[in-house]
Recover the amino acids of this structure.
């Protein structure tokens, strides 16, 4: 039987309701486990005490999330912790307010366990670009947990949090979910309020969920999604009841697969795993069709230009005047340059400089505007595609979790980790990563399901069907099957 | 990109790199330029439908009269029926307006 530390929330709730599980005692045990195991894992950068703020709101015990401990990515604001975004420049910054997602979890009675490690400002795919050190993968300590929400994913996979919040700009929830063998949901852009999320690339940023299975992810998503008057870009559409929608197979199941695109970038093990998942869906009655979408091959370049341009603009505020740990300088410009040069890490500087370059006079048309047109082409293509199919299936990443340090010297190889996740980000579409199998090294692989705008309920239902067929959580190699 | 261009960008971005850091970045940025060169050529539209709400034209990024990115961002916000992303045009029937407050 799965250890209590690795139960899903819905299974634990059933046991607690029958009086067979004490959630308070488990919360104390998880906090104790964090103290013992986090130094080796590195998933948390701040541990919160059970008694300190934030506290659950009295009377909120009826919610499905009440009593369960959550880990929060370090770029999501909340009273009671530092929102340092994994950066030296914000090492002392504590927000005086709660992000909307934090306020909603607080109302639901969530317990806040700690703040998780991340690539600085969300810029990275391996969790090695944090100012506070790297994070190790619970499946194999020499492998990356993925990035940028690697601390959040590692905490959930290691049994140090029931679920976690991450942020996804170009794949930063889905890639860590893939590397750590858990479920990751990136909602439609605007479906979850970004109020309180430190901006990296505003037209791409979303707050997403990392959980042990699809039903847990649906419960968290339904708690945090919905319109928010504090975020002018939040969609005026409620999340409905995604948990209720999980029963049975979706009625329509016409699944598109961009096979040429996948074959060009993925390893044979990843392709084989995807085909196995598709064969299972087909056996359950789904119709699998090969699709070709022009623009997918250029999506990574398009994403790189747009995200760097927006990052250069968004991070301009960290200059030591209002935000950022100020460094001394002989005059204002020197103070700003010193503050930013000392405070930002190498990857952030790289992206700021590239973003500044593509926005500069004489280069804007050549790079930024071309990227905007390419993005619009992809949006148009995706919109047309979803008139014919119900979901798109592709891998989350071209490989399983790679070795820590192996891509640090090659930024292009690092960016290549996001090749399958950036198309949904550019089009603002929802995407769900569901673990599906292991490669020859025993590391997790996954399928990424992409749906039409606001198609989260459908994706979750389809993801639950994949999960039910594969039963990944029962694999004996998983960290949660090891004796404690 | 050469060193002079990089120093110019540093000034624009409020950064000051050490010389060895600059050398490394020049190599990295050259690689990134290779990636960025894969952008498709061509002059497609920046938005699907350049009309917001009634008949007000949306700001065009490449218009010399409108260089304000905020306008463009608003034009793309999904609140607008002719925005950047495609979202359901109608509110589901079972949804109350309570949550909009």
């Amino acid at each position: 039987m799965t250890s209590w530390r690795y139960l899903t929330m819905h299974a634990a709730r059933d046991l607690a309701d029958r009086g067979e599980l004490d959630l308070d005692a488990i919360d104390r045990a998880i906090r104790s486990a964090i103290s013992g195991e986090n130094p080796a894992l590195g998933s948390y950068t701040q541990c919160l005490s059970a008694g300190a703020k934030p506290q659950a709101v009295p009377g909120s015990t009826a919610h499905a999330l009440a009593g369960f401990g959550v880990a929060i990515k370090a770029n999501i604001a909340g009273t009671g912790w530092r929102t340092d975004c994994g950066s030296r420049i914000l090492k002392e910054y504590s927000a005086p307010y709660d992000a909307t997602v934090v306020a909603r979890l607080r109302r639901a009675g969530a317990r806040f366990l700690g703040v998780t490690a991340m690539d600085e400002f969300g810029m990275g795919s391996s969790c090695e670009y944090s100012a506070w050190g790297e994070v190790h993968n619970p499946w194999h300590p020499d492998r990356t947990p993925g990035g940028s929400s690697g601390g959040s994913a590692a905490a959930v996979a290691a049994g140090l949090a029931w679920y976690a919040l991450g942020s996804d700009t170009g794949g930063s929830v889905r890639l860590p979910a893939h590397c750590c063998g858990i479920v990751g949901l990136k909602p439609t852009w605007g479906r979850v309020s970004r109020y309180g999320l430190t901006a990296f690339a505003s037209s791409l940023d979303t707050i997403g969920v990392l959980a042990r299975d699809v039903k847990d992810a649906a419960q968290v998503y339904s708690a945090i999604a919905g319109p928010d008057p504090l975020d002018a870009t939040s969609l005026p559409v409620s999340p409905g009841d995604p948990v209720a929608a999980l029963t049975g197979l979706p009625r329509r199941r016409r699944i598109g697969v961009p096979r040429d695109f996948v074959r060009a970038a993925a390893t044979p093990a990843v392709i084989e795993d995807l085909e196995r998942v598709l064969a299972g869906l087909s056996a359950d009655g789904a119709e699998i069709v090969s699709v070709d979408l022009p623009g997918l091959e250029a999506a990574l370049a398009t994403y790189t230009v747009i995200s760097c341009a927006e990052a250069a603009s968004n991070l301009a505020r960290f200059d030591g005047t209002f935000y950022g740990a100020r460094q001394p300088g002989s005059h204002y410009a020197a103070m700003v340059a010193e503050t930013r040069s000392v405070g930002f890490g190498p990857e952030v500087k790289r992206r700021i400089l590239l973003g500044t370059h593509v926005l500069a006079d004489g280069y804007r048309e050549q790079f930024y505007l071309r990227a905007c047109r390419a993005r619009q082409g992809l949006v148009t293509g995706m919109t047309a595609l979803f008139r014919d199919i119900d979901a798109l299936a592709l891998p989350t990443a071209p490989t399983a979790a790679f070795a820590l340090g192996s891509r640090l010297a090659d930024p292009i190889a690092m960016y290549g980790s996001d090749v399958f996740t950036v198309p949904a980000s550019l089009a603002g579409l929802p995407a769900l990563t569901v673990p599906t199998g292991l490669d020859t090294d025993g590391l997790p692989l996954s399928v990424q399901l992409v749906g039409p705008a606001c198609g989260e309920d459908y994706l979750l239902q389809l993801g639950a069907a994949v999960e039910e067929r594969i039963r990944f959580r029962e694999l004996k190699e998983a960290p949660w099957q090891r004796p404690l | 990109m050469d060193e002079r261009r990089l120093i110019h960008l540093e000034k624009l971005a409020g950064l000051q790199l050490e010389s060895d850091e600059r050398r490394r970045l020049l190599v990295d940025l050259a690689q990134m330029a290779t990636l960025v060169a894969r952008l498709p050529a061509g002059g497609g539209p920046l938005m699907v439908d350049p009309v917001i709400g009634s008949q007000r034209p949306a700001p065009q990024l490449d218009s010399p009269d409108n260089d304000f990115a905020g306008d463009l961002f608003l034009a793309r916000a999904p609140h607008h029926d002719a925005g950047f992303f495609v979202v359901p045009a109608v509110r589901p029937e079972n949804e109350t307006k309570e949550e909009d407050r």
Summary: The first helix of chain B runs from residue 3 to 13. Strands of chain B lie at 51-52, 56-57. Residues 13 and 101 of chain B are 39 Å apart (CA to CA).
